[in-house]
Amino acid sequence: MAKEVEFNLDNLDVSDRENIDMTQFARAGFIMPGQYDMVVRVNKAEIPTMPITFLPPDDDPKDSVACLTPELMQQMGLKQNSLAKVSYWHQGQCANLSSLPGTTTHSDLASSVLSISVPQAYLEYQATDWDPPARWDDGIPGVLFDYNANLNYTAAQRNGEDTNLSGNGVTGANIGPWRLRANWQGQYTRDQRGSRHQLNWNQYYAYRAIKAWRAKLLLGENYLSTDMFDSVRFVGASIISDDSQLPPNLRGYAPEVGGVAKTNAKVTITQKGRVIYESQVAPGPFLIQDLNEATNGTLDVRVEEQDGSVQEFQVDTATIPYLSRPGQVRYKLSTGQPAYQQFKPQGTLMHTGEFSWGISNGWSLLGGVMTAGKYNAFSLGFGRDLLAFGAVSLNATQSHADLPHTGKQIGSSYSINYSKRFDEYDTQVTFAGYRFSERNYMTISRYLDEIKYQDRYYQRGEDKQTYSVTLNKQFRSLGISAYLNYYYQTYWNRPATGRWNMSLARYFDIGSIKNMSVNLSAYRNEVRGKTDDTLYLSLNIPLGSAASIHYSAQSGSTGSTQNAGWYQRLDERNAYQIGTSTSSGEAPTFSGYYTRTGDIAQINTSASYKAGSYRSAGLSVQGGATATTQGAALHRTNMAGGTRLMVDTEGVSGVPVQGGGSAATHTNLFGKAVITDVNNYYRNQAGIDLNNLADNVEAERPVTQFTLTEGAIGYRKFGVITGQKLMAVIRRADGSFPPFGASVLTNGRETGIVSDSGTVWLSGVNPGVKMAVRWSGATQCTITLPEVLPEDPTGENHLLLPCIDSND
């Protein structure tokens, strides 16, 4: 209950002491009864803006308290037993927080925030950047179209001109918790053989979060998500325990793909023919770390150099050991028909299921089964948390297949996986695994191919042994960081393939030159009996904070090359580099690379020229469009079809907004902008960049929090005021002034408080705008700004504003 304060008006230096209204200041934090749009802040977490009604309590009609509805109480993240204790008043519409001792509320109308302090004992599990499911936001309805387009042109002396345009992306719609998606990819090629083109809609699917189960439901065409069996394309349904719905420290990891580009190059990552990543990279080592953490299985990587050469290799992205907490069961269930082409299921019905059960503190039991016609596979194993020594899992899988032309085949496969971060040694083993398969062991992919082709069976490799490891190590005393990725695959019926990639990097200072760096990278790629070895050495010398000189030397199976160049960052959005390279006995190659982080697209361009050999150019444009019931905007994006936030600045254009650490984007002509690549189920922040805000624009609460479900289109509105600031005098029709302490409001927002003799300092002033003047709990009169505002708004001759009574 707020304690009423009495003011000694004799101490006020006011000429008209009889014309004073201190009603809104009489009680600390007092808010007049009514409905207000406010952000609800529970401890440090925010719930989106919603209408909050303030009502006088039954025992004090002069007071006013916030009515916390049952719907709001559900979003606070209370434990079920705590929520059950809450009683309600005002016909069951307002919560009585006295049933939760220690819980308090504080309302701040100036910042439109209702703060609720709740003892931690009443709340569900929470982490610094994670909210319980009660606060997850499914976003608003909308449609999206994300794209990644790459154009490459090469004019070679021997092979003539070659133009290639490729693109891929995601289009979709959000309806409540459902995400409807369709993936597409296309290509157009024109060369001496003519022109060719194709466009494929290669995946149609829908998914949604099942919050109560910490799982995801998928319908339509997808790739089998499995940690124990082989992945295949199928049409059907899956329900999968979703690690991303767990607190951050219990989640999995996203795979990394690394390599070395000899020239400006296009890197394409596919999985079973589906493009999941494509972009231009500059010469030198590259490390792609922004793949979706849901990606698993074997990835095919293709690096197309602008000189016409191509690198191809595979990366295994198997997940870390499949462990579960005590009493927890994680599972993956799928049913459907295999599909060789887009949405054309064929073959027998397939069912799969796998689980991980946390038996005790540190031990997990793993198991799974897969059936498809006359094919059956069973897997069983265990996982063990080794505490200070990491985590390990072992499992054995046996397959039974009955084929029409070879009869019954029974075989086994065994695997061991390990993961550990050794903080005391600055070392992280992201994943290490080994698998051995007997010759008669048959994966579901091989079985389906044999059924389809029979005696015309396409001879895919019969897996024998697989080794894989990713290692990161810091030698802090030496200032050296090391990275190693190793993958080796042997087969029963063809030569082995292997790939290892290693890099060492060191930063150091020489005199006044700070943060110089040297990098040594090496990789070996073994495919079909051929070995490609490359050694890469680079030196980077920064010249200030925005420019640098770099030198590199590369030696490999195709010869040796030296490069020298200049890098210049123009600002936080634009950068370029130019360089030249030489190979023994050949003419030098000149190249340039330019990148721009725009509001509506990420753009990379490159060009190369080699006298007497070729000239080439490349362009990559990555962006998207999002349209909702609240508006639409073009935007840049990295994760096609991913989670995003639409920001609304109430029609004010050009407002810089940012989130997730990326460069700011600006609202469009309609005051809308979209922040993409938002982390799912994390507590994220977005805000207005006050340092670059225009002088005539003010932001009332410039930062907002949000936790979105996967694929959601979130929506947040920022209170933004645009316009001049000026001094004015408000006078009523009878010549009197509004009382001292009266409020001046624009669209329900307070923009000034009347002082002595009607004087008021107004903000957010625009020509022709109407403002309400309120005292004694109601709007008493209205002022209208002139169409031409004074040139000197703070001068001695204050603007006179007649206040027309509301009854007139």
Automatic annotation (TrEMBL):
Taxonomic lineage of the native organism: Bacteria, Pseudomonadati, Pseudomonadota, Gammaproteobacteria, Enterobacterales
Annotated PANTHER family: OUTER MEMBRANE USHER PROTEIN, OUTER MEMBRANE USHER PROTEIN YFCU-RELATED
Record localization: Cell outer membrane
Native species: Candidatus Pantoea floridensis
Domain of life, per lineage: Bacteria
Gene Ontology cellular component terms for the protein in this record: cell outer membrane
Keyword Transport: yes
Every PapC N-terminal domain range: 6-150
Pfam family, one: PapC_C
Domain PapC-like C-terminal, first and last residues per copy: 729-784
InterPro entries per record: Fimb_usher, Fimbrial_membr_usher_CS, FimD_plug_dom, PapC-like_C, PapC-like_C_sf, PapC_N, PapC_N_sf
Record family assignment: Belongs to the fimbrial export usher family.
GO MF term list: fimbrial usher porin activity
Record keywords: Cell outer membrane, Fimbrium biogenesis, Membrane, Signal, Transmembrane, Transmembrane beta strand, Transport
UniProt membrane topology term: Multi-pass membrane protein
Protein name: Outer membrane usher protein FimD/PapC
GO BP field: pilus assembly
